[in-house]
Amino acid sequence: MSLTLSQTLTPVRLPEYKGTISVSSSQRYFQDEQGLGFLVIGQNDAVTWPGLVELFDQTSPTATEDYIVDLRAHGITVSRVMMEYAQFERGYLETSPGVFSPAAIRFWDSFIALAERQGLYLLLTPYDTFWQVRNWSLYPYSAAMGGPCNSLHDWLTAPAAIAAQKARWDFIIERWGGSPNIFAWDLMNEIDLYWGGTPAEIDAYITEMATYVREKELAVWGRRHLLTVSSATPIPDSEFGQVIYNHPLLDFATTHLYVGQGTCTPTDGVECADEMISGVRLSMQTLSHPRPYLDSESGPIYEWIKDRAVDREYHHNMSWAHLMAGGAGSGMRWPYTVPHCLLPEFRENLLALARFAATIDWSRFASRNVTQHLRVDRPGIIKTGCSDQKTTALLWLLADSRLPGTISLSGAGVTLVHTLPDGLYCVELWDTQMGVVIEEWAATVSGKKLTLTLPPLESSHRDVALVVRAAG
User: Fold this and answer.
1) Would the pLDDT of 199 be above 80?
2) pLDDT at 260
3) pLDDT digits over 48-61, tens only?
4) How far apart are CA 432 and CA 409, in angstroms?
5) pLDDT band for position 11 (cuts 50, 70, 90)
6) Which of 93, 135, 278, 398 has the most Cβ atoms closer than 10 angstroms to its Cβ?
């Protein structure tokens, strides 16, 4: 059965989540307390950026609530926020170790309550290590300011520094740890970047802090939130990679797939897709056992994209590549925009992705990357996909506009091998800009081979998504 675009514009109902988020039974994604599959669709925010600063400075608290309402209306489930933004002293959570800023406390009391009211979840990390290090001589934990760290290396290793960090965790957990809308704690932002820690020292730090936070939450609240640690290395390997991807006390893995480090360039909106697909695939291969993986920071780190149309394409392609390669959501953009927040057109990108995502049972979808099993019968089409290898496959095709001539998806032949069991399937073709199905048809897998031919498509369809589901 074929459907015209005009027949499918009724929006998919976006899910509403309840309670604390946990790793799903599929072990590759998340779920809420109802067992409803949960994806991390969102971005990074900060207390001094547009959207949150109005609440932080008390200039217009209602503007922050309106901002959260708009995020949720666009399918955004998670904002990643550092509990201080250390570019400016007014953004500190502690003015000195153990002395908490009244303005910061007021903000977090109000912001977490707003998040709970509007259904937004938060990925929280206690320190803004980027600006913390750049302002180290003025930072409260530095020995120059009377703090416990004589050097940057002390941050991960000195008993006095660890004790001060545990005291911050005590305050955070006791005051805000009861919120079900804390999606997870990122124990340390970019733990590998600044402190000169060896893999063994980083492993020991994670073990100590994860154990402490876990036991503190259980003691105070009788339950705990998910734990992760973020890596500045896009695809860490060797001993450090094993710590980030496979530490037994972490619930999911996060890395920062930034551009300009051998992971994308911001000169067009396409190269980033190839690099994101590769990054997710390699990350999933490094997991020693199934667990969720996601990029919790990405964007054009060294050179901001000045053309907003190019940036919208860039963000769109990064988001779809991340999800369809097997990442546990959209990936999380660090804005690098003017104004410095998730732009309205980026929110539209995520709304289309959220509509698509609402039709998949992520709680049971035990995905594996199957890009190597996917073929297209013409050059110039970037491809990726993931499948549970039982009932469902998700495929994404992108015409490579960097190549000479016009690359068209219309009529392309697509083959997926060694992935799905033989049988009858229903295929949905999705418009990724609108987040709607544009055509459906039946297909057969025979000899573990699925062959599809895309229908005629407008030239405006630069990319499409396919859902292949077992019939019945």
Assistant:
1) yes
2) 55
3) 999 999 999 999 99
4) 13
5) low
6) 398
Q: pLDDT tens digit string along 362-411? A: 999 999 999 999 999 999 999 999 999 999 999 999 999 888 888 899 99
Q: Has this prediction a pTM greater than 0.90? A: yes
